[in-house]
Please model this.
Amino acid sequence: MFKIQKNIKMIYNLQGLSKWSDTQKSVEPMPVLFIGHGSPMNGIEDNLFSQQWKKLGQKFPIPAAVLVISAHWLTRGTWITAMEQPKTIHDFGGFPKALFDVTYPAPGNPELAEYTSKLVSHSHVGLDHDWGLDHGTWTVVRHMYPEANIPVLQLSIDYAQSPEFHYRLAKDLAQLRKKGVLIIGSGNMVHNLGKVAWDKINEPEYGFDWALEMNSIFKEKISSKDHQSLVDYMHLGPAARLAIPTPDHYYPLLYSLGLQGEKEEVAFFNDKAVGGSLTMTSVMIGGEHDFVI
Model:
């Protein structure tokens, strides 16, 4: 299901940071999100999950741009989309035609892409002109910003690297929050498609015992800011190995946690299990939490 993309178009700019930041006023740090994105159908359905995404977009300050770390862009090396107009990627199969007909024509921002690539100090970030916005991004962001008038970029996940690498890389992105960029990790905390109870997929809040157990452990570790245990998730017991058989949907959580400030609190929303072996549990870091359900 998950394809490792090897990018062949590379653009390097060694002239230093771009001037993008010069055009952006410093602001209070934007909140950070980890979104459990679940089924691609959430991109066109009006349900509890998409309604919460819409509410977030309405309550947040209008961002200068949105940067998404999606579980569905796995690469060798780290890349950031740097095109003027990213395409809408329909990276799934077996869904209704209405889902494939959706396009989300948000612009990109090449200058922001270059600026972001230079912020990362311990790894090279290449500028990509081949990818676009996959369903880990557009199915969520189109509910938040339906007019598609805010630049949206994606940062890839180097699938050859360790959990610690991804957590550390996220810390290099913190400056973007002070320039009005909304950063979203998009995956699922508990994500085991091989064990989905398809006969229960429409049953509200149905979760296997191990999935609910692991989801509770994740929430407790997040609430107590025990990030190291979450980086070392494979030491959290047998339930962790069932919840995360592959780390693609888990790594975006580490990016979001890596951006948490020392005094910033968290709030959980969309805290529901689906199909037994998936959870939609999402996290908001920083910002005002009074409207999160």
